[in-house]
Design a protein that fits this description.
By secondary structure, the chain is mostly helical. It is built from 4 helices and 3 strands, in the order αββααβα. The chain has a 3-stranded antiparallel β-sheet with strand order 1-2-3. The two termini are 22 Å apart.
């Protein structure tokens, strides 16, 4: 019989992501000045960047209201995700993906509430990105953003698998 993890397992995963995200941001804030960077490889730097906007600095220059808008949006999404987790607790891929999104969203919400911006630190750059991004640098991101992206990919995969099962 398939194991059906309870809600606490999915919330624990989200909490683990949240803690990893906040610890990484705490370390960057304690050890780097704004825009200070360490070159680690020919394509990756560790950097401290503050993003008052959303993904790709969307609405970063909006004047401050976006802080509270994105905070409210993140909290609302978190509530909806917890509701979905409770309703679908036995669907492992779906709940894994939702837990990743939940942990990441709350990590960025905490940043917005504490600092007024999200702390980013992962800076990848390649010359082939130069036509799209200045100096070939993909916009810096953080552990929360990685978790949200993994969760989004998991949700897409879950839906594709669900549609495939429905056809058979």
């Amino acid at each position: 019989m398939e194991s059906r993890p309870g809600l606490s397992r999915w919330l624990a995963l989200a909490l683990l992501i949240l803690v990893a995200d906040q610890l990484s941001k705490w370390w960057i804030l304690a050890n780097y000045a704004q825009h200070e960077a360490t070159v680690l490889t020919g394509f990756f730097n560790l950097v401290r960047v503050h993003n008052p906007g959303a993904a790709f600095s969307f609405l970063a220059d909006a004047g401050g209201w976006q802080r509270w808008f994105f905070t409210a949006l993140g909290l609302g999404a978190a509530g909806f995700i917890v509701w979905l987790l409770r309703a679908h607790v036995g669907q492992r891929l779906f709940c894994f993906a939702l837990s990743c999104v939940l942990g990441g969203a709350l990590g960025n919400v905490i940043d917005r509430m504490l600092h007024g911006y999200v702390v980013d630190m992962l800076d990848f750059h390649w010359t082939w990105l130069e036509p799209m991004f200045a100096g070939g640098h993909f916009p810096a991101f953080n552990v929360a953003d990685v978790a949200i992206s993994v969760g989004a990919a998991g949700l897409i995969l879950d839906e594709l698998l669900r549609v495939r099962r429905a056809r058979n």
